[in-house]
């Protein structure tokens, strides 16, 4: 038996908080970067130079910014370009069209990002938290629990890195420019609200302040944090809201999405319809198809009645089961019948393309496998 360490007597000092992520230029707007550069004794235009390298040329290594004087480069890099993400593992599948990265953050926390190349676009899926506190039982990340929120720059840096991968031309059969970002990686984005909103503003601000993406090409997912959904509707953003519903009835959703015990299906959908009305944007209803759990025909019919006539689209997701899980994907005939019933109710419905199964493609699987390896499991 391993003996427990002897703890020192309390001195009355508050417990030490984990160190914050280092400040990075992506945490600041252009004016904030200029002010910081001036504090360092450099001319304000250096902020634009750094920003052009990072957001315009997708250069994350200060050593490559050779148009800056060497001494100034080192000083500016230390204050504005610290390393945020250290690659633990990078994997590719689907003939190179899908690439997944596992990152270690400054404090050892692990997060994942995925790049998916298509004929007409490149999409990256990024994480907003290390782990997740929503505790959905069929999700690897939810079962791992929440470690912490990511900083704005830690969120943005995932997209910048993967934009650089796309720009290198290695993504098979896809254009060399990042066009879409989905906040569907690890974490509940609306539980890290302020930093996610700031990250969206960086992603959409024109270069050199940001990446210059269209707001309409940004998707923010949520399990249904109603106050945050209503707050998002007030932001005057044109991003797509994706609601992870997974069940149309409270009895089952209470189990699959525990936050439903606080905000019921009717409240969550009311907030979604309010978002659609305020923004004119169609809400994406995410629904993981789980064998013998939520895939019954009567649930398809109930979902169809809830969504009929609404500005909504159903995205059915074939479950990517985690190792050892009791949850499994619905059989294809069951999935097809579910789709048929939704469409018969007049509800636009598609089935998500399955990507990355051979590289632990489901959210949280790669991090879980790395943690398991480190623990000797």
Descriptive notes:
The chain is of the alpha/beta class. The chain folds into two domains: 25-80, DNA polymerase, domain 1, CATH 1.10.150; 86-374, Aldolase class I (TIM Barrel). It is 34% helix and 18% strand. The chain contains twelve helices and twelve strands. The protein has helices spanning 30-39, 45-56, 70-80, 140-144, 152-167, 193-204, 226-233, 250-256, 265-279, 297-307, 332-344, 365-374, and strands spanning 86-93, 98-104, 110-117, 122-125, 129-131, 146-149, 180-183, 218-222, 240-244, 283-289, 312-318, 348-351. The strands form two sheets. A ten-stranded mixed β-sheet has the order 1-2-3-4-7-8-9-10-11-12. Helix 1 (30-39) packs across helix 2 (45-56), helix 7 (226-233) packs parallel to helix 9 and helix 10 (297-307) packs parallel to helix 11. The longest helix has 16 residues, at 152-167. It is elongated. The model is unreliable at 1-15 and 373-377 (pLDDT under 50).
SS element count, helices: 12
Name given to the CATH architecture of the largest domain: Alpha-Beta Barrel
Global morphology: elongated
Rg calc: 22 Å
What is the CATH topology descriptor of the largest domain? TIM Barrel
CATH secondary-structure class of the largest domain: Alpha Beta
Strand order of the largest sheet: 1-2-3-4-7-8-9-10-11-12
* Helical content (DSSP H or I, runs of 4+): 25-40%
Strand content: 15-25%
- Let me know the number of strands: 12
Q: What's the story with the biggest beta sheet? A: 10 strands, mixed
Amino-to-carboxy terminus distance: 19 Å
Mean pLDDT: 91
Low-confidence stretches: 1-15, 373-377
> So, the CATH homologous superfamily of the largest domain?
Aldolase class I
Q: Pairing-aware structural class of the strands and helices? A: alpha/beta
């Amino acid at each position: 038996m391993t003996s427990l360490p002897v703890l020192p007597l309390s001195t009355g000092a508050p417990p030490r908080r984990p160190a914050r992520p280092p400040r990075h230029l992506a945490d600041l707007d252009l004016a904030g970067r200029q002010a910081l550069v001036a504090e360092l004794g450099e001319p304000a235009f250096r902020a634009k130079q750094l920003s052009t390298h990072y957001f315009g040329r997708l250069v994350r290594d200060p050593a490559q910014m050779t148009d800056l004087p060497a001494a100034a480069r080192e000083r500016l890099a230390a204050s504005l370009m610290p390393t945020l993400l250290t690659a633990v593992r990078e994997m590719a599948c689907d003939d190179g069209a899908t690439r997944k990265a596992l990152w270690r953050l400054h404090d050892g926390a692990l997060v994942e990002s995925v790049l998916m190349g298509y004929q007409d676009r490149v999409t990256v899926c990024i994480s907003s938290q290390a782990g997740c506190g929503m505790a959905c039982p069929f999700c690897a990340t939810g079962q791992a629990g929440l470690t912490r929120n990511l900083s704005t720059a830690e969120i943005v840096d995932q997209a910048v890195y993967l934009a650089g991968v796309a720009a290198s031309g290695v993504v098979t059969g896809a254009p060399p420019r990042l066009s879409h970002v989905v906040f569907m990686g690890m974490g509940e984005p609306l539980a890290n609200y302020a930093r996610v909103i700031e990250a969206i503003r960086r992603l959409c601000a024109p270069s050199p302040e940001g990446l210059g993406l269209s707001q309409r090409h940004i998707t923010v997912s949520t399990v249904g944090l109603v106050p945050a959904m209503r707050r998002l509707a007030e932001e005057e953003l044109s991003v797509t809201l994706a609601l992870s519903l997974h069940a149309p009835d409270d009895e089952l959703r209470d189990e699959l999405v525990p936050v439903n015990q606080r905000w019921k299906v009717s409240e969550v959908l009311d907030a979604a319809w309010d978002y659609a009305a305020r923004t004119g944007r169609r809400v994406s209803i995410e629904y993981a198809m789980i064998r013998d759990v939520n895939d019954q025909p009567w649930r398809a019919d109930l979902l169809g009645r809830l969504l009929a006539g609404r500005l909504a689209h159903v995205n059915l997701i074939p479950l990517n089961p985690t190792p050892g899980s009791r949850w499994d994907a619905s059989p294809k005939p069951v999935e097809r019948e579910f789709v048929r019933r939704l469409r018969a109710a007049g509800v636009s419905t598609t089935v998500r393309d399955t990507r990355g199964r051979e590289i632990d493609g489901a959210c949280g699987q790669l991090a879980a496998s790395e943690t398991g390896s480190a623990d000797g499991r």
